[in-house]
Amino acid sequence: MNVNAPRREFSFEFFPPKTPEGMEKLRATRRQLAQLGPTFFSVTYGAGGSTREGTLATVLEIRAEGQHAAPHVSCVAATRESLAEVIREYKAHGIRHIVALRGDLPSGLAVAGELRYASDLVRFIRGATGDWFHIEVAAYPEYHPQARKPDQDLAAFKTKVEAGADGAITQYFYNPDAYFHFVERAQAVGIEIPIVPGIMPINNFSQLARFSDACGAEIPRWMRLKLEGYGDDTASIKAFGLDVVTDLCDRLLTGGAPGLHFYTLNQAGPTSTIWQRLGL
Ligand code: FAD
């Protein structure tokens, strides 16, 4: 199988901090990760624009430090007008790379928004700005939790690509075969854009289990049992996590993945250790 892109792409994702202390901590994280020379940093976006200012402010700070940065944008609980404003604002700042998502409604919020799916958002952005933006979208090797059937989810992914996505970043997973199978199936239906695997380092088992239950990413039984068995022994959890995730990344790159996207959770340590172990 050949899933090689012309150039491998390595990116680090942050969320916009809510406090001045969080901003300061993220600056230190960025200083450390910038030394690794990533292709870009990306900054998440809260449902309904809840982090709109924080996302943009973080992206602008990263750019001021001389790094390439891509804001995320999501259409859930948003009007066309508010999305048009966000897109205009990004464009006015000379931002040319974004990650376009549907987003998830926080529990208790019942406003769906005017655009239903990420494919509608990609079409909307292309309609408003033509080829200005390089647009990345999400992909799900283990399928999205709301998808009724794998084929429907793949069809939804294809719709996003046809709407104008240039690249995709996957939800995290710990089984490399799920990724390779997904890429093969995507290629079989004519999807040619690079599909970069999303990587979640492991630091804390209860947090990882919570995330995974919510987003449908499987923690394989053998990993879950090992992690549970460590109890409060955080040093062993971290050491095991580094071994498992480094091995995953190695297999993905060896198998031809066109890069890696790290969900850093605003921490530099695990990502830089994995990076060094991979010899990147
Ligand atoms: P979609 O592609 O719209 O898919 C959502 C669901 O709808 C899927 O089940 C799909 O199969 C189905 N679907 C899509 N189109 C159709 C159709 N035409 N007919 C029937 N069904 C359809 N969330 C945030 O809030 N902020 C972020 O910054 C953020 N960043 C992310 C970054 C990455 C790399 C990833 C992988 C996820 C991110 N998320 C973020 C989470 C994401 O918003 C959720 O996973 C969300 O549930 C789905 O978003 P999507 O863009 O994949 O949606």
In words, what does this structure look like?
The protein has helices at 20-34, 52-64, 80-92, 118-129, 150-163, 176-188, 205-215, 221-229, 234-254, 269-278, and strands spanning 9-14, 40-43, 69-74, 97-101, 134-139, 167-172, 195-199, 259-263. With 280 residues, it is of the alpha/beta class. It has one domain (9-278): TIM Barrel (Alpha-Beta Barrel), CATH 3.20.20.220. Strands 1-2-3-4-5-6-7-8 form an 8-stranded parallel barrel, surrounded by 5 helices. Helix 4 links the parallel strand 4 (97-101) and strand 5 (134-139). Helix 3 (80-92) packs across helix 4 (118-129), helix 4 packs parallel to helix 5 (150-163) and helix 9 crosses helix 10. The mean pLDDT is 95. Flavin-adenine dinucleotide (FAD) binds at residues 44-45, 47, 72, 74, 99, 101-104, 117-119, 138, 144, 146-147, 152-153, 156, 159-160, 169, 171, 198.
Bound molecules: flavin-adenine dinucleotide
Major β-sheet annotation: 8 strands, parallel, barrel
The residue ranges in which pLDDT falls below 50 over 5 or more consecutive positions are none
Instruction: Compute the CA-based radius of gyration.
Output: 18 Å
Overall geometry comes to: globular
Q: Provide the CATH topology.
A: TIM Barrel
Helix residue percentage: 40-55%
Number of beta strands: 8
The mean pLDDT is 95
Helix-strand sequence: EHEHEHEHEHEHEHHHEH
Report the end-to-end length measured between terminal Cα atoms. Answer: 23 Å
Q: Can you name the CATH architecture?
A: Alpha-Beta Barrel
Number of helices: 10
Compute the number of structural domains.
1
Structural class: alpha/beta
- Largest sheet strand order: 1-2-3-4-5-6-7-8
CATH class: Alpha Beta
**Roughly what fraction of the amino acids lie in strands?**
15-25%
